[in-house]
Amino acid sequence: MINSVKQNSAFNSVDVRFLICLDRDSSISLDYRDINLTIVNSDGHSQAKALNAGLKIVKSDFVAIIEDDDQWNTDFLKLVLSAFETQQIDFISSNQLEIDMKR
Q1: How far apart are CA 43 and CA 55, in angstroms?
Q2: pLDDT at res. 12
Q3: Cα distance between residue 5 and residue 22, in whole Å
Q4: CB neighbours of 38 closer than 8 A, spacing ≥ 6?
Q5: b or e along 34-54 (b: 16 or more beta carbons within 10 Å of the residue's beta carbon)?
Q6: Potential cystine with 50: which of 4, 21, 77, 98 (Cβ 3.0-4.6 Å)?
Q7: Residues near 25 by Cβ (< 8 Å), separated by ≥ 6?
């Protein structure tokens, strides 16, 4: 997940900050010293609680959410940022393409 964001074509042209949002009583072991990473613990046991805990501390103009089992297309950030610059929009939502990695 983090590697797919780092490999994005627009990664070096924007200030990317990672928030890992965890359910209460969860833990994670990561060794990513080359990125701006903050781990946020929520007060509940749901995806919504974890995301809301992360959103409370965000201080940027844009937020992009990627789940732990997802990967971004290499041009995802470039496409999204271009849409914000050329269109008068405040929100972008994207679909997913599911791939069976077991095959």
Answers
A1: 13
A2: 75
A3: 19
A4: 17, 18, 19, 20, 57
A5: eeeeeebbbeeeeeebbbebb
A6: 21
A7: 45
**Run of H or E including 84:** helix 76-86
The SS3 call for residue 90 is: coil
pTM to 2 decimals? 0.66
Residue where the block lists tokens 């983090």: 2
- Mean pLDDT computed over 10-23: 76
In this predicted structure, the answer to whether residue 34 has a pLDDT above a threshold of 70 is no
Integer Cα distance of 42 and 51 in angstroms: 8
> Token pair of 33, please?
């010293």
Give, for 39, the enclosing helix (H) or strand (E): strand 36-41
